[in-house]
Design goal:
The structure is a single chain. With about 375 residues, the protein is α/β, with parallel strands linked by helices. It has a single domain, classed as TIM Barrel (Alpha-Beta Barrel), CATH 3.20.20.70. The protein contains twelve helices and 14 strands. An eight-stranded parallel beta barrel has the order 3-4-7-10-11-12-13-14, surrounded by six helices. The longest helix has 21 residues. Bound molecules: flavin mononucleotide. Flavin mononucleotide binds next to helix 11.
């Protein structure tokens, strides 16, 4: 498993190993989205536990794009001091830290009219004026929340991209080693990619070149705001349906996801993180095999930028073998590090034992409930 602990580089970021803590919203911020002392402690513990790079839980950069309660607020500089403390703690323990940026859209658990979503008087000023409605590619009901979003105009899309760019510049000033554009898991940019949600007939709908345009505008805005070498990662679904890689159920297919990844690379992305329909995948008995490993290997062959593959890794032996064979740059771990924040150190010390995570999914509740096995 030595190769797990070789250094890696993404854009201008050098990390001590190839283990990445995949974004995991901890629900530990204050109500206004300020990184709290327990959240800073959580990242400090992860860094001390040996992981090379930490991708934060998703941060909203426009108030109306908030995806979950008590998630990170990157809408303004108001919480800059707390973000700097978080970054300093992680750097002091030898790890890198990347801020993930999300616009929730109709999958957000907080929607217009919900007092937890609308900015309270006490809340930090938002970036732009809240539209008081939720943006989507098309007026398609969300099966999870039953919300029907308002189809975004081109001006709306440009406003989202510009706000994301400003948040990326803030992250850079706060000392983050990079940002990640969240284009996966059914949030706004993922919906633009998906024919299920995107029924548009303008230049943002139809062929994948059009469906990827909103994503690419966001990447371009982040790149422009941060300069040529700053790591701008992008997280994409390998496809929308774990059981149907051809996208026959109407979602994003693997071929279209591959095309979107190539367009993201052209738009200036520094690395691709491969994910997908992990809730469905986690029900399968994958036995430590990565959920999206074959697609990750394909992307490593087809792209010139590093590829991180996230989801399902539990065995250091299997992870090491994929790193050696598939040309992928790194493996992303989420639930195993909730279960064992010191997992990387354990593996580096030579323990051959799998992660203790059983993939029960109870931690995925966005309510700050930790791993039941640790309680
Ligand atoms: C509690 C929890 C919160 C998560 N929050 C995020 C998030 O903020 N952003 C994101 O891209 N993925 C998020 N995920 C998904 C993970 O990054 C990862 O894709 C998924 O858990 C599969 O990886 P695993 O098998 O290593 O857990 C979350 C997962 C869990 C369990």
């Amino acid at each position: 498993m030595a190769n797990l602990f070789e250094p890696m580089t993404i854009g201008g970021m050098a990390a001590r190993n190839r283990l990445v803590r995949a974004a995991t919203a901890e629900s530990l911020c204050t109500r206004d989205g300020e990184p709290s002392a327990p959240l800073v402690e959580c990242y400090s513990q992860l860094a001390a536990g040996g992981v090379g790079t930490i991708i934060t839980g998703f941060a909203y950069f426009m108030q109306e794009g908030k995806a979950a309660e008590r998630s990170l607020n990157a809408c303004s500089d108001e919480f800059g001091a707390a973000y700097r403390r978080m970054v300093d703690q992680v750097h002091g323990r030898g790890a890198r830290i990347v801020l993930q940026l999300v616009y929730g859209g109709s999958k957000s658990k907080l929607v217009a009219g919900d007092p937890r979503w609308l900015p309270a008087a006490s809340e930090t000023p938002c970036d732009g004026t809240p539209t008081a409605d939720v943006l989507g590619p098309s007026a398609v009901v969300n099966p999870v929340t039953s919300v029907v979003p308002r189809p975004a105009s081109e001006a709306d899309i440009d406003a989202v991209a510009a706000a994301l760019g400003r948040a990326a510049a803030r992250a850079q000033r706060w000392g983050f080693d990079g940002v990640e554009v969240h284009g996966a898991h059914g949030y706004l940019l993922s919906q633009f990619l998906s024919p299920c949600f995107n029924r548009r007939t303008d230049s943002f709908g139809g062929p994948i070149e059009n469906r990827a345009r909103a994503l690419c505008r966001c990447i371009e805005a982040a790149r422009q705001a941060t300069g040529p070498d700053y790591p701008v990662l992008v997280k994409l679904n390998s496809c929308d349906d774990y059981d149907d890689p051809a996208g026959l159920a109407g979602g994003l297919s693997q071929d279209d996801s591959a095309a979107a990844a190539r367009l993201a690379q052209q738009a200036g992305a520094s690395a691709l993180e491969v994910s997908g329909d992990w809730h469905r995948a986690s029900k399968e008995a994958t036995d430590g095999q990565p959920y999206f490993g074959a697609f990750g290997a394909r992307m490593a062959r087809e792209l010139d930028i590093p590829v991180i593959v996230t989801g399902g890794w539990r065995s250091p032996r299997i992870a090491g073998a994929h790193l050696a064979q598939d040309g992928i740059a790194a493996i992303g771990l989420a639930r195993p590090l909730i279960r064992e924040p010191y997992l990387a150190d354990r593996w580096q010390a030579g323990s051959p034992d799998d992660s203790l995570c059983i993939g029960c999914g109870i931690c995925g509740n966005f309510a700050g409930i930790p791993c039941p096995s640790r309680m």
